[in-house]
Amino acid sequence: MGLWVNTSPLISSSFFLVLALFFHHGNGAIHGCDLFTGRWVLDPISYPLYNASGCPFIEREFTCQKNGRQDLVYTQYRWQPLDCTMTRFDGVKFLEKFRGKSIMFVGDSLSRNQWQSLTCMLHSAVPNAKFNITRVGDVSNFEFLDYGVKVMLDRSVFLVDVVMEKNFGRVLKLDSIEGGKLWKGVDMLIFNTWHWWNRRGTNQPWDVVEVDGVIKKDIDRMVAFERALNTWARWVDTNIDPAKSLVFFQGISPSHYNGTSWNEPKAKNCLGQKQPFLGTKYPGGLPPALDVLKKVLSTVKKPVKLLDITMLSLLRKDGHPSMYGLGGPTGMDCSHWCLAGVPDTWNEILYNIIL
What we know:
Layout: H1 13-25, E1 29-30, E2 33-34, E3 38-42, E4 77-81, H2 91-97, E5 102-107, H3 109-125, E6 131-136, E7 139-144, E8 149-155, E9 161-165, E10 169-173, E11 188-191, E12 208-211, E13 214-216, H4 221-239, E14 246-249, H5 288-297, E15 305-306, H6 310-314, H7 342-354
Parallel strand pairs: 5-8, 5-11, 10-12, 11-14, 14-15
Antiparallel strand pairs: 1-2, 3-4, 6-7, 7-8, 9-10, 12-13
Helix pairs in contact: 2-3, 3-7, 4-5
């Protein structure tokens, strides 16, 4: 981990500070281009970036082709910003840039989706390079041994703590973030949370909420989401040294369970969708959680860059596993993303920002 050393081709601390300054004052544009506003273009010659069968470590819930999905056109779309063309992902260059460094995705299964995408993109670039995959507790580590690059995942679905207490059971502590001890010293952090905040009943992974030292049976979920993000923001301002660590927030990854939002009222989910919504704007608009996230990010004093992937992902109603995920035909999944697929674009944008 440690400092970014000033030796090419590694990232120098001076570069790091310049990039941090861009984070702090940028509005989504880099080199004058807004990477997050654009359209999906069919490009079967250049995409997909990899063959998922070459990455046997991809988990079953994301391996749509292996699970029986036969249409492949969804893998062949390239994200095209309106005012520029993104640099194509170069896995070798990425690994050289991060030689001896650490990367950690922190969040829920959408973080795992992006983590698995990046590890496959990198492995596909250096298929003969040695790697090792380990897991200790909630932290998974994919290490490229020839480069000393660690690409990690910390499963922390709320970012704030959930602890077991004798009198209350599982307590969601909106003001506590002890789990952040695992994030200190990591060279690049990509955070995410939202997917679990509206879970209820047996799918809800907590029993009570604690806020301001008071135990509550429940709380408005958007209020809770904002409170937890504010706790996370304080952690960033207290613990991040911009000369040593880059910080990103993944944004809000959308679901597609209501065809009315993409002008197909008869569609009850994403099953059978074979092409994106063609255009630059999504009829159903943006989820309110994104406004909350942007509000909190505007208060963070340390540099944090939003990977504003919500709109470009909203346009990809075709990119979900649907019946070709972990649950099969009875477990319709219109929340996660097939690999190869949409999360590869998230990582391409990440690559273009840090390039």
